[in-house]
Structure formats: C-alpha cells, structure tokens
Amino acid sequence: MRSGRRGGLVLAKSKARGRGWVLAGILLVLVGGTLWWLLDVPGRRGPSSDTAEHGGNAAPGEDLTIWFASRPEDALVSERRRVPPSPTPFDRAKASLQELIAGPKSEAVRTISAEVKIRELFIDTQGTAYIDFSEALSQTHPGGPWAEMLTLRSIMQTLVANVPEIKRVQILIEGHEVETLAGHMDIRRPLDTTWVMNQR
Amino acid sequence: MDRRTYTSERPGALQPIPRPLHPARGSVKVLHAKIYIRTSVAHHRTRIRHGGRSVIAPTSAQPQARWGRLVIIAVACLAILEARSTLVAQLPASPLPNEKIPTVVLDPGRGGSNQGARGPTGLLEKDITLQVATEAGRLIEELLGLHVVLTRTDDSDIPLEARATAANQAGADLFISIHAGGSLGTTRREFQTFYFDDMQGSLPAEPAPAQERDVSGEGGQRRRGAGPRPQLVLWDQAQRDFLDTSQMFARILYNNLRAQVAEEGRGVFGLPILLLRWVRMPAVLLDLGSLNDPGFEAKLRDDAYLQRAALGIAQAVNDYHALQR
Lengths: 200, 325
Description:
The complex is a heterodimer of chains A (200) and B (325).
Chain A: H1 2-39, H2 51-54, E1 62-69, E2 76-83, H3 89-102, E3 118-123, E4 128-133, H4 136-139, H5 145-162, E5 168-173, E6 176-177
Parallel strand pairs in A: 4-5
Antiparallel strand pairs in A: 1-2, 3-4, 5-6
Helix pairs in contact in A: 3-5
Chain B: E1 5-10, E2 13-17, H1 28-56, H2 64-90, E3 103-108, H3 125-144, E4 147-150, H4 160-169, E5 174-179, E6 192-196, H5 210-213, H6 243-261, E7 267-271, H7 274-277, E8 283-287, H8 294-300, H9 303-324
Parallel strand pairs in B: 3-4, 3-5, 5-8, 6-7
Antiparallel strand pairs in B: 1-2, 6-8
Helix pairs in contact in B: 1-2, 3-9, 6-9
C-alpha cells in the first residue's frame, strides 16, 4: 500500500514537471516569433523585385538580368543589376539595353561597344520590339560570325529575360533595316525566341 | 608567299615536295600521271625483267634463245599495253569534250573600304583573306585540275549580293568564303567553319504557289508525262537544297584545317549567315581566327601558316570531290 501511494506521488510530480517544460517551450516559440516578426524589416530580406511595394527602408527598384559573353567567348553569362522600378515594358526594355551597353562588372566580355546609343525603341501589340541603334553598333563591332552571334544573342536574351511581353526583336541601325550586323549575320527580319538558348 | 609545289603520294594526302614542277607540266594531272606511270610501269618492268632472266639466263647461247627473245618481246608488248590501260583508268577524271570540270568559288572576305577586323599591329582581315584565297585557288587548279573562280582578285569592295551572284552564275559546285574575324574581347579564337542554319525556321521547303502547281487549270491532266516541272527557287531560299551537303563539307574542311595547321579549332557551327543563304550550291564560311588577339595576329602574319591553311582548303576540296565521285 505504502509503496503504491509513494509511486502515485512520484508520477504526479513528473507529470507536473513535463507540463512546465511544454509551457516553457510554447512561450519560447511565441517570444522568438514575435521578436523575429518585429525585427524583420523588408530591407533585411535581400534584394527582390517587389521591395518597393512593401514600402521598406531600402531604395525602391527592381532587378534585371543582363547577359554578356563569357570569357572565353563561347557562351553567355548573366549579371544582376538593380535599377529604379520601370512602370512599363518600354521602360524596362530601355533600362535593360542601357545596362547591356554599360558593360559587365565581372570578368565577362561586353557584347556592345560603350559608344552605341539607343535612338528609338518601340514595342508593338504583337510583342515585336523595334530597337533603333546608332551606327556605332555595326561600325565598332569587331566582326566575325561568332562575335556577331554573341552580340545578337545577348540583346535577345536580355530583352526576353526582363520583358516577358517581347517575343521578337527587329534591329534597326540609324532608322533603317540592315542586311547584316557587321557583314555576316542576317538581321533583315525580326529575331525570334529561337535565339534564346539555355545559357549558364 | 613562298610558292612551293605539291604532289599526291597517296589518295587523300597532299604533301609538299622540295623540287619545283617542270615548267611545261604545271598541273596535278601530270603529277598524278607520273606517279601512276612510275608505279605501273615499274611493276610490270619488274615482272618483265624477272621473266626475262628466267628465260634468257640458262640458254642464252642456244638456238632456243631466239624463241626466248620473241617471248620476251611479246610479253613486253602486252605489259606496255596493260600499263597504258591502267594509267588511263587511274588518271584523275580526264575531262571529255562535253564533260564539265568542277568549279570551286573562293570568296576572299571584305575588301576595299570594308577592311574587316584589324590586328593590334595593323594587319587587316581583307589582306589575309585575299592571300589565303589566292594561294588556295592556285593549289586547287594546279593540284586538282579544277576550275577556280575568285570573287575578288584585288582590293575591291564587293557587295554580298555580287559575291553570291558570281558563284551562282558560274554554276559552281562548291563555295568557300574565307574570313578572319575578330573576337569581342582579346580572347584568342582559333579557326571555325560555318554552314547555313536559318535559326528562324523560315527556310524549310515550301510548296510552290497554287498557280505554279497547276498552270494548266485542268487538275494536272495535261501535264501527265510532260516531265518534271521547272522548280521555282526564291533567291532567299537558294541554299535550301544544300543544307546537309554544306554541313558535311564544313566538317571536311574543319578536319583538314586541323590536320594542316596542327591545332585545335573551335568547331563547326550552323548560323544564319546571309551570304551563304543566297548561294545555290554547297557553301561554307571559314573563319581563320581572331585577328585582334596579339598572338594570333602574329600567327596570321606567318606565310607558312597561311600556306598550310590554303593547303587544308585544297585538301578539303579534294576529299569532297572524292566523295562525290
């Protein structure tokens, strides 16, 4: 009898101790969660395209993916750029091309000379982007089919990656359609998304 | 460029030989003929001598010696006739009066004010392409006996349309455009070969327009048995029927270049190159390498390197025509 009563007391004490641990755990989770929620300002989440919508302390903007030639020049590689938010596909396309012309910040190779200017840009309702470059695009190009291909593909890949509305790209130089970029590649007609390949 | 001479010691290999060609026999046909004559006649002579010794030696002073001489003379006559027929059979495609000699168009890229790529020390693409094309043309004519058409022979700027037109007008069998383009950076880029590949998917064969399909208006009844109808080929689709052959020749050219210049190239690629689109024959573009790389520019200044490149082109043409026969 005695031993049975003693055993019941021990069991009751251990149950009470277990409830205490559970309550402490729940309390810890609640406090930790509250602290995490309070300290999680938008700027600490890292860059994202919807930062401006949260109205945090970080500068508003969006990320663009710009494609340059790899070194050695056998593929394209991408770099991220943070730019002010673009309200329209037109703005985003223009910002993307300007970053492409500005050149890479890593060891990648630029595909367009820094002397090139964007004269006009227009996106029609069918998703064809007409880009009018200055003549420096062809005049400063080193030539060669491979180099021309890399330039065209970097333009196409950059635009399609950042502006989903664009399906085709027609390149103009000084307001006119031209036969080739620098003597080889046929650019009389719009380039379509077959120019966009899986690149690293 | 050092003008050396070449001969074919075995089918499929052109090797330089140190002695000059005989002035009166400056063609590959004569060289081939000499080799085959030597081979064939030597073979038969050996047999003749061998047979002669075995007949003459033991009985030279006997009356049967006359018969022996007669036998030798008869065998020698037969051997000469056989050697002649063997030689005729082995001569490389001796052109009959009505037989068309294959024509190869070599297109030295750039020219005139269109200088193309420029090396760090001033070497110009237009000069390199002309030098290699001229030498390759000479080798193809002299060693292979084929006709060669150069789209330019001096420092003139020829539009792409005119180059394609010259090739199509010549009814040529092969078109090789030679370039030495630059690279975007200072990356070294070795030679590459290209064939036409329309990346837009607009080049596949299209049916002829309705009025072309049935000009009689009688459901084709009147045309039954009238033979094949003339095929309408659009200027922009001139290369359409030669895509596979062009790709095959691009690989042949790449492999021969690699063997001759003893270095790895960058590969064989299909790209929408406008000039190739307009050419109605198997057509490739050879890019010798990036001229704006200092090391590679030095290599392209070396006449021996350019001559090996020209020899690679000639060898590729030889291999291609051997496959076509």
